């Protein structure tokens, strides 16, 4: 599946140990009028912001939508000229509140190597990709009634460089620090292009492997705000089903056994593999830890007879979960979004390869640092497998420095209702809002769009 991608080393003698459960972006043949690729940095550097904004405005029609229904802007920002690194964004101003006063929210997808177009077209964006008929041969978009841009100015960025439409010649990130440098540069230029939003409250949100990206960019903004004259009004962060500390969360034996999906023998086999993974992490043998994790996932999927890791209530992936990929590759979409003939997802494998050994480097300490300074929403669908809620609890059990630990351990979860119905359970401790969404898998807003919208709005408006 697309949110935690693992790419097979074809020539390796270990090939049978690598995951069969990952999504691979397929190259598409581009024909017809796709327009030109829009690089905005030269205009930003020259101070020609009006021209840049006019060029970035999405005016060409998207299939299924009258463009006067929705204001948006898109294009590429050059974050490193030496490495030819460019990041793609698509920005949607708030619709139900005054954009000049609404929070600005950054959305990041996981992977590593998964496009944030998933968030835009599949999860909580203003546009939902749908098939036009039962043959599933063509796609269009429809308006999403529970889009998060109803209450916030939403920016979707393909992060890190090489992901989705973002691309580079030689600037692939090998560490979270390098991810943060490029993404921060992108945000600085974005706020320069849209200066009227710089004083608005800013939140960083993401899911899955973005459970590492979000703390990274949040800490980077915090640090830069201490020393730079350029300020971003950072007010908090949100992480959904996040892989924040994989050594704590990437454990499945007991969880799947208690869910009735594995027997005692298979549980014990997974527990043995998890012990080896943790030993590798303790010795900073991160590639070996990654390999142990991959073989564990392959093992339990084989025993379960399933290929799906994003919810215990589903065995295999539905075609609809990837139709966004068909939509973004359409000539009409490419022209409207100013991506031209740039390949989509062609470098995602390289993104993953470069960050492979970073996967098991924990962001727990960064999360603790941020918890002491900013509001933090951590939410999980109770049906997820790959980044399950129990793994998040394991991370909190392993925390050592957060000043709210005592309050957290003594806190009781409260029932959270939406329109009178039980949506989930909320635990509050100092800056932490820990939320469990009922009947939701890995992509919480896709599983429960109305309830997730209520959760999101309550958090960014300080009502939670």
From TrEMBL:
Gene3D superfamilies xrefs: alpha/beta hydrolase
Keywords: Carboxypeptidase, Glycoprotein, Hydrolase, Protease, Signal
Signal sequence extent: 1-15
Classification via InterPro entries: AB_hydrolase_fold (IPR029058), Peptidase_S10 (IPR001563)
GO molecular function: serine-type carboxypeptidase activity
Protein name in UniProt: Cathepsin A3
Superkingdom assignment: Eukaryota
GO biological process: proteolysis
Protein family: Belongs to the peptidase S10 family.
């Amino acid at each position: 599946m697309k949110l935690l991608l693992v790419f097979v080393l074809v020539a390796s003698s270990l090939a049978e140990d690598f995951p069969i459960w990952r999504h691979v972006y397929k190259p598409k043949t581009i024909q017809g009028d796709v327009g030109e690729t829009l690089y905005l940095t030269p205009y930003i550097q020259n101070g020609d912001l009006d021209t840049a904004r006019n060029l970035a405005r999405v005016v060409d029609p998207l299939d299924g939508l009258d463009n006067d229904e929705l204001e948006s802007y898109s294009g590429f920002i050059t974050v490193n000229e030496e490495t030819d690194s460019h990041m793609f964004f698509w920005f949607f101003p708030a619709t139900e509140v005054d954009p000049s006063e609404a929070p600005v929210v950054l959305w990041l997808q996981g992977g590593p190597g998964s496009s944030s177009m998933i968030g835009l077209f599949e999860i909580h964006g203003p546009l939902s990709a749908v098939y036009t008929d039962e043959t599933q041969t063509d796609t269009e978009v429809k308006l999403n009634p529970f889009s998060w841009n109803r209450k916030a100015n939403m920016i979707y960025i393909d992060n890190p460089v090489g992901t989705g439409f973002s691309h580079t010649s030689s600037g692939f990130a090998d560490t979270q620090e390098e991810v943060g440098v490029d993404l921060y540069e992108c945000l600085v230029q974005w706020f320069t292009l849209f200066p009227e939003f710089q004083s608005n409250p800013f939140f960083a949100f993401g899911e899955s492997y973005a459970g590492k990206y979000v703390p990274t960019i949040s800490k980077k903004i915090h640090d830069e705000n201490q020393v730079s004259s350029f300020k971003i009004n950072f007010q908090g962060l949100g992480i959904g089903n996040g892989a924040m500390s994989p050594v704590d969360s990437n454990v499945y034996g007991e969880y799947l056994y208690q869910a009735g999906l594995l027997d005692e023998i298979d549980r014990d086999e997974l527990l043995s593999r998890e012990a080896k993974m943790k030993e590798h992490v303790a010795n900073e043998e991160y590639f070996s830890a990654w390999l142990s994790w991959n073989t564990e996932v392959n093992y339990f999927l084989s025993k379960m007879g399933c290929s799906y890791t994003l919810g215990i209530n589903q065995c295999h992936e539905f075609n609809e979960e990837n139709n966004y990929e068909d939509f973004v590759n359409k000539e009409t979409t490419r022209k409207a979004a100013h991506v031209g003939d740039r390949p989509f997802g062609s470098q995602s494998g390289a993104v993953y390869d470069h960050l492979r050994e970073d996967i098991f480097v924990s962001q727990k300490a960064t999360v603790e640092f941020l918890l002491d300074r900013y509001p933090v929403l951590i939410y999980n669908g109770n049906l997820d497998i790959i980044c399950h809620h129990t793994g998040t609890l394991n991370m909190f059990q392993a925390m050592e420095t957060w000043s709210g630990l005592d309050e957290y351990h003594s806190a009781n979860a409260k029932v959270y209702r939406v329109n009178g119905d039980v949506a989930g359970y909320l635990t509050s401790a100092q800056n932490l809002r820990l939320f469990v969404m009922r009947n939701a898998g890995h992509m919480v807003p896709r599983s429960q769009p109305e309830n997730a919208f209520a959760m999101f709005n309550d958090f960014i408006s300080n009502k939670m």
